[in-house]
Amino acid sequence: MSPRDCLLEAERLALQVGERWLCCEFSLTLAAGECLVLLGPNGAGKTTLLHTLGGLREPSVGAVRLGGLPYAGWSALDAARFRGVLPQQQPDHFAASALETVLIGRHPHLGRWGWEGADDEAIARAALADVGLAGFEQRDILTLSGGERQRVAVATLLAQAPRLFLLDEPLNHLDLRYQIAVLDLFRTLADQGRGVVMVLHDINLAARYADHIILLDGRGGVMAGDRDTVLQADRLSHAFGHPLRRFDFDGRVTFLPD
Questions:
Q1: Which of 19, 62, 64, 180 gives 13 a disulfide partner, CB atoms 3.0 to 4.6 angstroms apart?
Q2: 102-123: b or e for each residue (b if 16 or more CB lie within 10 Å)?
Q3: Residue 89 has what pLDDT?
Q4: 196 within domain boundaries
């Protein structure tokens, strides 16, 4: 793998919050063109791990490298151009149009005193169209449904155009149609050479879209590796505290509660 292809590395990474270890040491490399899914029960530490991979908190043990460099080797502006983070919640304290909100994604590309231009607006409009919100440009975000607001957040990240996307529960508030549409969109971006890391709750969607899995069991245990190695019924049953069975339907792996 060339240095340019390596987007994200975790080396002997371990996380501790207070007296509790969220995960023991593990290592993983994400290359351009790959999708990594973080799985585990509620409270296992998926968001904390995503924030650590995104450089928003320091690891307790080990190192995280972005594009071959520790986050300390990046300026905030360059890091924002390289990787973008979709938070789990979208706090809206003031009224703004959907287009104005999506244009926030262009800020890393404008410089200190820059203003959005016609090209930035075209990128923002295209991002809204990509998530099925063409025609919503002037809608006040305070009037949007939860699912519409989530798609605006995804469009904002698309407008940022990073090489690496880190998504914390990107399917929040989305109905089935848009869950699949959003996952298809990021899978396509990965296939075009970007990298994607996302927190999901649905094991079967992880099996469908991921190349790699990090499975947290909520008790400090972690397994990181390729999808087919990690997604085994016994490992999932242990992590989620409920027996699961694996089935193959039309060439697609599915896990169901026993």
A1: 62
A2: bbebbebbeeeeeebeeebbeb
A3: 87
A4: yes
Please write down the long-range contacts of 72-78, taking CB distance under 8 Å and 24 or more positions apart: 77/108
pLDDT at residue 4 greater than cutoff 70: no
Identify the domain containing residue 72 by its residue range: 6-91+165-257
C-alpha distance across the termini of the chain, in Å: 41
CB 133 within 8 A of CB 151: yes
Mean pLDDT of the chain: 95
- Read off the CATH number of the domain in which 50 is found: 3.40.50.300
Element (H, E) at 172: none
Query: 74: Cβ–Cβ under 8 A, 6 or more apart, which residues?
Result: 55, 66, 82
Between CA 116 and CA 243 the distance in angstroms is: 52
**What is the number of domains present in the chain?**
1
Handedness of CA 46, 150, 159, 116 (dihedral sign): negative
pLDDT in tens, 64-122: 999 999 999 999 999 999 999 999 988 888 999 999 999 999 999 997 777 889 999 99
Whole-angstrom distance, CA of residue 175 vs CA of residue 189? 21
